[in-house]
Amino acid sequence: MDNNNLLPKLSQNLLEILNDEEYYDVTIEVGKDPYVRIFRAHMVILHYRSPYLKRIFSTHKKKNDGNLTQIKLPEFYPEIFQLILRYIYGGKLSLEEYETSDIIKIMDTASKLSLQELVNYLQSYLIDKKANWIEQNFTMVYKASYENNSFLRLQKYCTDLISKEPDKIFRSLNFSSIPEKLLISIIQNDNLQMSEVQVWEHVLKWGLAQNPELPSDVNNYSDDDFNILKNTLQRCIPFIKFYNLTSKEFMDKVLPYEQILPKELYKDLMKAFLSLLDPNSKPKKSRIPKEIKLKPINSKIITSQHAELILKWIGKLEIYTNELTSYEFKLLFHGSRDGLAPDKFHEFCDGKSHTITVVKVKDSNEILGGYNPIAWRSDGSFSNTKDSFIFSYDNNNGHVLSRVINEKYAIYNNHFGGPSFGCGDLELLRFTSKNEILPEIFQIILRYIYGGKLILEEYDISNIIKIMDAASKLSLQELINYLQSYLIEMKTNWIEQNFSMIYQASFENNSFLELQKYCTNLISDEPDKIFKSLNFSSIPEKLMISIIQSDKLQMSEVQVWEHVLKWGLAQNSELPSDLTSFSVDDFNTLKNILQQLIPFIRFYNLTSKEFSDKVFPYMKILPEDLCMDLLKTYLDLLDPNSKPDDKSKPRITKKIDFKTIDSKIITYQHAELILKWINRLEITDELTTSHEFELLFRGSRDGFVPKNFHEFCDGKSHTITVAKVKDSNEIVGGYNPIAWNSNNEYSNTKDSFIFSFENNNGIDNHILSRVVNEQWAIRNHGKCGPLFGIGDLYFWNDISINGNSMSKKINYDKSIKKAKDKFYIEELEVFQIIKT
Asked: TLDc domain: from which residue to which, for each copy (predicted)?
């Protein structure tokens, strides 16, 4: 047995001991008035876990007299000490619960308590996960690391950051507040990748910021002003490499401040620079040279030339500049080596910042790529940065650089994909369904199979989707149902924040019916949450259609149209933001993007004013027939707030009232399409006759037995049978134009058909299969339910029993089920179609 499996329980028990109010033997008063709190603890645990507390307890020898030991720690914050105490007992600290700034306080407290293991863990967390935050709060972090010798790794990280990217520090908002001691530590660094004149300018800027009363123009300085600045910078000046300046830089930048330099230094500098004839030459060098030597790049895609240009883009330098910092390109992920799969990308790259992604486009010499300055994640969120960019190199050695505009949506941490920049600006390694299950996920499943338990709080929420997907592949429906319930009941907020990812997952897997239903209801009830979500624009077209075709969508039609337009424009960022600037090609581009969505917009539900303001400007993207019909309809209206007659102007086809359908399986959309099949119409054709669907038989109401089916349905013609397949969203069914009976014979008809819908929330994915062998079209069997053909669609004996429903391609022209022949059903209904 792996002993690590016992640690969670041990940790849990130790935390229970901390909360125990009976067996404690020490009280600790923490903080200063008015913020004081008393903690109860156990001397033996604190003694062995904290060397600092061990020293304190050594002066408080425990007595066996029943009295409590009492100590005071006024130098600590009570709320921080409480966190540390839980770590001491349980060995755990969930950092996601705290503000990043609090982690510095926790580190400081851990250092004082001599908890170096915790200090090291916190340093690693900040460096690996919060690199962007460190840069934004550099002065505070560098100062903390410099003043505490326990923070050596953080100190090294800050020092390296200063050396490699000094501009980020010198130009930060709080640079001027950096203490003198830290400034000296920065400028005395021989590896500082910055020209000496820039170092001098930043030191001057810092000195002036310490004395805001000094004039802004050096020509207006008095002797006292020079003395003030001299005293401020007297400890910094010895670390300026003045001899690294050109004579012109010395004359322009240093000479005006000669009075703040030591006299001997000034004389030596004047002598050295006056001896030079070339104004661009330097007397001697004392700082490490700035020549750039790129280490060999382990790449099958880019060369050192590409790399040098990318580095200049990162540094926001001109192409022709020579002021470039030395860098190493460390290969993290290689598709042909590690596998072209999203999971592999996240395995090697999550948590890594300052990354360059490059891809070779198949069957061309084109290279695409992007730069992400912050750490990759896979939680389905967007990350904010102003420094990311994407780029391309074409076959003719030309290039395109594209910097981020909408910083909030700069990076998409795609759970189902690889590197993703913006809302589809550059998206690589999109998820494709595979049969493989990750080893770590299979291990979790295996523990469930053996032990029947799964502690979901131990896993990242995003991993639960992976566990569900694996459970689906292993046909563990009980586990899938449990996981769906957990997400719906406990993680609703997370679902909303990651809606696109969740809806896509539920839509692509028919085992996730509860989650799919929850998402569908959420869309209908609160569409604003979806349409206004950060990643709405990245929703695939198929899911977008499923959203806007919902009849229960609680949103006005003009709002639906506006969101569809917004989605379409986001799919092509090159389109002008101003419609008046659209060219004919721009309109055609948008038309092609939205051609599958436009048929689901209910244009006839708009007022004439809404049509005029919101639709008319985009008439060039509408089909010509629809365009002409809309113009004719709305021009006939005089009242700007009126709408066309719904009965004469339907959404796609003529509107038929199906509100009277009493069905647990199909909607009026299914019914409308079935009627078109009966009348052999195209999907886009209009129905000219209204029909009523009269319910004859329902399995859950009348009993899943053949005798009852025949009792209610024999002698009835023009019937539709529909059945809901168990543990899926699939609907199967058939149409029988002639009367059912129980004479154990076949009936002949050329008009019967069978069908299936992949999703009961829409009609997009369907199969229609018409009879080809008419003499075997319908079988009438007294001991069976509805039978179509010789096994094309059978509901046998006890209709609800496993395997007693079947579908094969024999007498009808297509197979209506892609999966296995035999299947369960959970509901069956038979309707008679009556013309009204």
From this structure: 300-465, 664-834
